[in-house]
Specification:
Structural class of chain B: mainly alpha
Number of strands of chain A: 0
Number of helices of chain B: 35
Number of strands of chain B: 8
Helix content of chain B: 55-70%
Shape of chain B: globular
Strand content of chain B: 5-15%
Largest sheet of chain A: none
Radius of gyration of chain A: 20 Å
Radius of gyration of chain B: 30 Å
Oligomer: heterodimer
Strand content of chain A: under 5%
Chain lengths: 197, 753
């Protein structure tokens, strides 16, 4: 921990390192990057918090099996569609297993959802995932004051005066913080999406 | 989707909407009262680390909020708080301090620690361009911290460069001590290490430094040696710039690498690494925990020896060998009749101590003439008594076979005739003689003296006098040994009440009482209470009496026993090895206390399934105890039972049965009928018969044992549950499923064996 921040590298090289399998840190990074996405999606698909942990594990283990030798080839489709396919499959398997093992309690399990709903949910989660990672990535680039100003003003919707007062910077600086952070977020997400393919 | 993809993050408003919907952690900071200005530092498998300002001190701190949250049960939270309490007690400049902990309003456990500005140890070494000696010195400093934590019974379990930060002054800081456990085996004792680590993705990140026992899903073997292994992997990395087993792409292969393949010798990567240093690294990386350095302290000493230009110890004999040699030596010594005299010496030491106490009292009590007179008189009486007794040991008169028992009998006669007018002196001596009889396993005689001593003390000193308190505790211990638990309980409780009212916490008697009650709670199966009492007693004894005081060692030893019964084997092993080291240091390797600790370590290893390591210890202990205490002593019988269990685990059912029967017969001979132990041994005989397919006889023994255990201990006691499990197993093998399931219901918590 310390004041050191997690290193951020491009997705393509991260996938490359994971595929080569030399570096355990690559897997940790990979896990950190995708666990929340998978967890969030599973949650939206009606899984319990405890089940979500298991789903994350299963999806990553499934990836672990195929990643070695994985060569990114844009013509074969997007990584994120692939990840979605694996995650959806794991959740379905799990649901089926649960259906077998328990007789009661089925009433609470969510009905199967239409594919396009699944797609929308996945897209939502996927956007959140990129936003989260972009925010992590740019964190070291902005001062605490700027981040707090952004958080209070842009995200929580407090008035600009109140934010300026609370953070102890000028109103102008609050506006500036918002626009600078937002612009930088957009840039970083654009890179991430391009890298991911 | 393709079009939306282009626009959503390039349009400020769309992006902002997304940011708000994401409820990102930027806005979604946990509320932790007493801390402000939270900024996220790092997000990992275990949880999120924030930087924050502690309001009370205005200092910057780091707060780790663990992921578990909503799915955590109350028990998880209780465990979390208990672990944190243990970790927070660590005080070492290289262990990152835990200042505070709690649960957020959202239900997530968190802990607060000092904020370290540093680099992971591997990067720090590279950046500073450190030479070999520098790296080794830094490594030794890391070992020092890990050793300190081990001394307090805390194993790190997840040592890796990311958890060891080196600050600008080159000082290491180890993070997350003992905390890997909190997020890893959430499901409790049975969870396999691998499952648990993969769950949070930690495994993947820690694989390179994980020990064979961790990746092999044998969590019961995770112990001190686990940290030794990880330290070895770190040292390997610091020296060669590589990992001992390049982590392959395939999980199965990676596991095989760690568990089977020998590491690439460091010198084949960098020939300039000295051979001694390579030896040190490779010894840490041994696959079997038993072949690594037995402690981090040993490892550190070798590193320091190397740095000082001295020969290292790793090339010398391994502990196992030394131990075997000690046992051989022991046999030679034991061959002499000296052993009985050895117990005699214990007795004499007790008497002499009593005498010395009296003399001391004589000096310090000079302010009161009356007291002085009484004490001087006592001193004189004890001196005469001692002289007479010692003259009885004159070998030319009695031959070399003066038995302690005879000595005691003589003393008992003396005391019966000579002390009518000096009740206080008589009480003290009866106390001594009673204890001596007790330690010889002659409980009936012990009982006579301790009872008489207690009543004299109470009558002439009053119940609140420390001698009376001591006397009632000694009698309570005896009653517990006799299996008369209700009597023991009321004696202990009486003593405890008086102690809490009249005795200061720093007093020896206070800790001794806690330890006594803890022993009783252990026997009653009230293990959590026992653990709490022992930990408190241990802390008090260590603080006020020192690390090598008998009470400190006893507390350490007993804590290990209780933890073992709670299936917390890795923690147990830590305390047990510590007690063994302390006993060896204080009493030497052949003393009964040392022998006993070694035997218990054998039992622990046996129950952990480490039979090869356990066997020499358990077998040698039986031989040693037999020679020291004789065939008919309760402890000898107990170790006989242990060897029987070992044989059973080994699948040598015939030998197991023979030994189990011997233990039962011996117990029936020396213990009063209905004694708890008899029932336990009978139950084991039944179990052995079951393994051999002799179901009818097995049923007879098991049912008889079960009846006794249940009457005395109640249905909830672990022994009663274990007995029910055995019966369920019997009926299952016998093809009587209805009976089997009926017994199974009586053993809800019990597992397999």
């Amino acid at each position: 921990m310390g004041t050191r921040v997690m290193s951020h590298e491009t997705h393509a090289s991260l996938l490359g390192r994971v595929a080569e399998g030399i570096d355990p840190a690559a897997w940790t990074e990979f896990h950190n990057r995708y666990a929340e996405l998978i967890r969030g999606f599973a949650r939206r698909q009606g899984q319990t918090a405890a089940d979500c942990d298991d789903i994350v594990q299963e999806v990553l283990l499934a990836l672990l099996k195929v990643m070695p030798g994985f060569r990114y080839d844009p013509t074969k489709g997007k990584f994120r569609s692939y990840l979605k396919t694996v995650t959806v499959r794991v959740i379905l398997q799990r649901r089926r297993q649960k259906g077998r093992s328990s007789v009661i309690g089925d009433a609470e399990s969510p009905l199967p959802v239409a594919d396009d709903v699944v797609d929308d949910r996945w897209e939502d989660e996927w956007r959140s995932h990129h936003i989260r990672h972009a925010m992590e990535r740019i964190q070291p680039e902005f001062s605490l004051e700027n981040r707090r100003a952004f958080s209070l003003y842009a995200m929580q919707g407090l008035s600009v005066e109140r934010v300026a007062d609370e953070v102890g910077i000028s109103v102008n600086q609050v506006y500036k913080a918002k626009s600078r952070i937002l612009r930088r977020l957009g840039e970083v997400i654009a890179t991430q999406v391009a890298e991911e393919g | 989707m393709a079009n939306g993809e282009q626009s959503w993050f390039s349009d400020g408003e769309d992006l902002l909407r997304g940011v708000r919907d994401t409820a990102s952690h930027w806005a979604d900071l946990p509320e932790i009262s007493g801390y402000a200005e939270l900024v996220e530092l790092e997000r990992g498998g275990q949880g999120v680390v924030y930087q924050a300002r502690q309001c009370s001190t205005n200092q910057l701190v780091a707060i780790k909020v663990l992921r578990s949250g909503a799915s955590a049960t109350d028990e998880d939270r209780f465990r979390f708080c208990r672990e944190i309490e243990l970790v927070a007690a660590l005080d070492h400049s290289s262990i990152v301090r835990v200042h505070d902990s709690g649960i957020t309003p959202q239900g997530q456990p968190f802990y607060v620690m000092e904020l370290v500005d540093g680099l992971p140890v591997d990067e720090a070494c590279e950046q500073a361009g450190m030479d070999l000696a520098g790296r080794l010195a830094l490594f030794a400093a890391i070992c020092d911290a890990v050793g300190h934590a081990h001394w307090h019974g805390i194993i790190h379990r997840d040592l890796k460069p990311r958890n060891i930060l080196v600050d600008g002054d080159g000082h290491p800081h180890i993070l997350d001590f003992g905390l890997a456990k909190l997020t890893s085996d959430r499901t409790g004792a049975g969870a396999a290490a691998l499952d648990s680590v993969t769950r949070s993705g930690q495994f993947l990140g820690s694989l390179a430094w994980a020990s064979p026992e961790q990746v092999e899903r044998t969590p019961e073997q995770v112990g001190l040696g686990t940290d030794v292994y990880s330290l070895g992997a770190i040292l390997y990395q610091l020296l060669t710039g590589q990992l001992p087993h390049g982590v392959t792409t395939n999980l199965v292969e990676a596991v095989r690498g760690i568990t089977v393949a020998p590491p690439v010798p460091p010198r084949s990567i960098r020939p300039q690494i000295p051979t001694d240093v390579e030896t040190i690294v490779l010894r840490c990386l041994a696959k079997e925990p038993g072949r690594r350095y037995p402690s981090v302290g040993e490892l550190q000493r070798d590193v320091r020896r190397y740095l000082a230009g001295e020969p290292i110890g790793a090339k010398r004999d391994h502990t196992g060998y030394l131990l075997r040699r000690a046992i051989v030596r022991h046999k030679i010594v034991a061959g002499l009749a000296a052993l009985l005299l050895l117990s005699g010496v214990v007795f004499l030491v007790a008497i002499t101590a009593q005498y010395r106490r009296v003399v001391d009292a004589e000096r310090s009590a000079s302010h009161s003439l009356e007291v002085a007179t009484i004490e001087a008189e006592r001193a004189e009486v004890v001196r005469r008594f001692l002289t007479r007794m010692l003259s009885a040991v004159n070998p030319s008169r009695a031959g070399r076979d003066v038995r302690v028992v005879e000595l005691l009998e003589q003393a008992a006669i003396d005391i019966d005739v000579g002390f009518d007018d000096k009740p206080i002196v008589e009480a003290a001596l009866r106390h001594c003689i009673g204890q001596a009889y007790r330690s010889l396993g002659l409980l009936k005689q012990a009982s006579q003296h301790l009872e008489r001593g207690l009543s004299l003390s109470v009558e002439h000193r009053g119940v609140e006098h420390r001698e009376a308190i001591q006397a009632s505790m000694e009698l309570a211990i005896l009653r517990a040994m006799q299996g008369r638990l209700p009597e023991a309980e009321s004696l202990f409780e009486g003593a405890q009440q008086v102690v809490e009212r009249c005795v200061d916490e720093t007093d020896e008697l206070f800790a001794a009482t806690l330890l006594g009650v803890a022993g009783l709670r252990n026997m009653q199966g009230r293990l959590i209470e026992s653990e709490q009492l022992l930990r408190r007693g241990l802390a008090l004894a260590a603080e006020h009496r020192g690390e090598t005081h008998p009470d400190t060692i006893r507390a350490t030893h007993n804590l290990a026993a209780v933890l073992n019964r709670m299936q917390r084997r890795d923690e147990s092993e830590v305390f047990l090895r510590r007690a063994l080291a302390q006993h060896t240091e204080v009493h030497g390797p052949e003393h009964l206390h040392t022998v006993r600790a070694r035997g218990n370590l054998g039992v622990l290893l046996m129950e952990s399934g480490r039979l090869d390591e356990a066997e020499p210890l358990v077998v040698a202990t039986l031989a040693a105890v037999r020679k020291i205490l004789g065939e008919d002593h309760a402890e000898t019988i107990n170790f006989l039972h242990n060897v029987a269990v070992l044989r059973e685990y080994r699948g040598e059912h015939d030998r197991a049965l023979t030994l189990a029967r011997q233990a039962l017969q011996a117990a029936e001979k020396v213990m009063t009928s209905g004694h708890l132990k008899i029932a336990r041994y009978r139950s084991h005989v039944g179990a052995c018969l079951e393994r051999l397919g002799r179901y009818q006889q097995a049923e007879q023994e098991l049912l008889a044992a079960d009846r006794d255990l249940r009457t005395q201990l109640g249905d909830g006691h672990p022994y009663a549950q274990k007995s029910a499990t055995e019966l369920a197993r019997l009926y299952e093998s016998w093809g009587k499923p209805e009976l089997s399931s009926r017994w199974r219901e009586l053993a809800p918590g019990a597992s397999g064996r």
